[in-house]
């Protein structure tokens, strides 16, 4: 979602004459878009700010005024601390106020001292964002829902992104249509609880994710739809059936389970059991047998015993994941788990995480290996690193390379997979392939 937000900030600043540069030394405005989900991500902000300060000082010595803005969830949660620890920061803005960025940049350029906006505004930022003018390529993110009301014990999202809110259907259709006109073929719908989507439809009714995805499927050029991140409790039967019935819905699902122990799930306030998770996965596999599964795991949540951890390992062995993200529990300010007396010791968390990650890596390798000899549709999105090579994505979100002409970029073609590396596949174009 931060990638999406960053792109929208670019759209907002373009009318002021700004363009994106890859070289920080050339930038009149440096924006750090930040993440507060774990302590590691937050600490990075301050080390990165030290680097940006040097650039700002160097540029200003050359007579080039330079502004530093900190955006995103660290700005939301720690705005005041940021300007105390790093007073050279000019602008601080939370994830719900970035539509005000142009005004804040102009204000900061005029005066000395910081400009801070981290309230939750009554207006929706989406009503103030211009239509995208440039797509980054043939795949794009599109935020359809933001915030969360679930309050898992470990999570800062309800505090930083705010309450759950769905964008109206028409606004999403307009944005998706615009992206497709710009050449996008594969859209990932984003939300902290994306499958809880319930937006105002053009017919006056509330639309769910299924209805929205069906409508989006009619947009010319849009051949692939994905959505992330989902909560098991919002995995409706209709959504599961859509994985069978809607050809544009890709056979890939990121469905975080966090733990394989009912005791821990309860302590996490997740609102579902291990059995319910298995049942959802069973139904999904029946609806779409080739569905590739992904998940998030937290290791060492307060109170997690070795038996609880073993239950998580069992779940991983039973279900098998095509990919997964796993993290050591990181206490976050303001969350209920952070004040629990039963914190798990760091070395214990390290050992458990290592054990889990070894199995998840084997499963990922296994999943990729099973592709060898298969013919799969690949949406080509970019030139490969090697001469004459092009790269793209499989329906299962794997990176795939093949020898092929650059003119095929932006098209979907069948590729026969013959090799599997750790994080990518390679193969050759199937002659009688059809493009979409
Ligand atoms: N510690 C570790 N991991 C966390 N996540 C969220 N909060 C924490 C935390 N305090 C993980 C969850 C979530 C993913 C986005 O980040 O697994 O699904
Ligand atoms: Fe955080 Fe997801 Fe739980 Fe919401 S449902 S509190 S975003 S982990």
From TrEMBL:
Residues 134-368 form the Radical SAM core domain. InterPro entries: Elp3/MiaA/NifB-like_rSAM (IPR006638), Methylthiotransferase (IPR005839), Methylthiotransferase_CS (IPR020612), Methylthiotransferase_N (IPR013848), Methylthiotransferase_N_sf (IPR038135), MiaB_methiolase (IPR006463), rSAM (IPR007197), rSAM_horseshoe (IPR023404). Binds 2 [4Fe-4S] clusters. One cluster is coordinated with 3 cysteines and an exchangeable S-adenosyl-L-methionine. It is found in: Cytoplasm. It is an enzyme of class 2 (transferase). One of its GO terms (cellular component) is cytosol. It comes from the Bacteria. Residues 1-110 form the MTTase N-terminal domain. [4Fe-4S] cluster binds at residues 148, 152, 155. One of its GO terms (molecular function) is 4 iron, 4 sulfur cluster binding. Its EC number is 2.8.4.3. Catalyzes the methylthiolation of N6-(dimethylallyl)adenosine (i(6)A), leading to the formation of 2-methylthio-N6-(dimethylallyl)adenosine (ms(2)i(6)A) at position 37 in tRNAs that read codons beginning with uridine. Monomer. Belongs to the methylthiotransferase family. MiaB subfamily. This is tRNA-2-methylthio-N(6)-dimethylallyladenosine synthase. It comes from Commensalibacter intestini. The gene is miaB.
């Amino acid at each position: 979602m931060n990638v999406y937000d960053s792109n929208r900030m670019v759209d907002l600043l373009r009318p002021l004459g700004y363009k994106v540069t890859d070289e920080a030394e050339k930038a009149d405005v440096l924006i750090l878009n930040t993440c507060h989900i774990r302590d590691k991500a937050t600490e990075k902000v301050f080390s990165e700010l030290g680097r940006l300060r040097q650039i700002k000082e160097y540029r200003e010595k050359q007579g080039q005024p330079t502004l530093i803005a900190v955006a995103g969830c660290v700005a939301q949660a720690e705005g005041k601390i940021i300007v105390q620890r790093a007073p050279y920061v000019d602008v601080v803005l939370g994830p719900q106020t970035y539509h005000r960025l142009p005004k804040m940049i102009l204000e900061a350029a005029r005066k000395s001292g910081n400009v801070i906006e981290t309230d939750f505004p009554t207006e929706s930022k989406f009503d103030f964002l211009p239509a995208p003018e440039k797509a980054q390529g043939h795949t794009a993110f599109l935020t359809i829902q933001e915030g969360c009301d679930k309050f898992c014990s470990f999570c800062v999202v309800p505090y930083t992104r705010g309450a759950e809110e769905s964008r109206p259907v028409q606004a999403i259709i307009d944005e998706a249509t615009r992206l497709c006109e710009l050449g996008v073929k594969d859209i990932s719908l984003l939300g902290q609880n994306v499958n809880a989507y319930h937006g105002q439809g053009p017919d006056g009714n509330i639309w769910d994710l299924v209805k929205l995805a069906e409508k989006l499927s009619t947009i010319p050029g849009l051949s692939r739809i994905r959505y992330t991140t989902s909560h098991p409790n919002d995995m409706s039967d209709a959504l599961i059936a859509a994985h069978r019935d809607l050809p544009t819905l890709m056979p890939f699902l990121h469905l975080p389970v966090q733990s394989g122990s009912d005791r821990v799930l309860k302590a996490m306030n997740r609102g579902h059991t291990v059995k319910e998770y298995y049942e959802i996965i069973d139904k999904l596999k029946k609806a779409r047998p080739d569905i590739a599964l992904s998940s998030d795991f937290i290791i060492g949540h307060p109170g997690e015993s070795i038996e609880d951890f073993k239950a998580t390992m069992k779940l991983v062995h039973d279900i098998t994941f095509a990919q997964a993200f796993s993290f050591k529990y990181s206490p976050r300010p303001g969350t209920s788990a952070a004040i629990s007396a039963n914190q798990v010791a760091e070395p214990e968390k390290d050992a458990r995480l290592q054990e889990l990650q070894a199995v998840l890596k084997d499963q990922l390798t296994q999943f990729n290996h099973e592709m060898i000899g298969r013919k799969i549709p690949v949406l080509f999105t970019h030139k490969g690193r090697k001469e004459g090579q092009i790269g793209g994505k499989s329906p299962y979100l794997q990176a795939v390379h093949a020898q092929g002409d650059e003119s095929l970029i932006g098209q979907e073609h069948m590729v026969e997979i013959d090799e599997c590396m750790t994080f990518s596949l390679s193969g050759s174009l199937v002659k009688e392939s059809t493009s979409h």
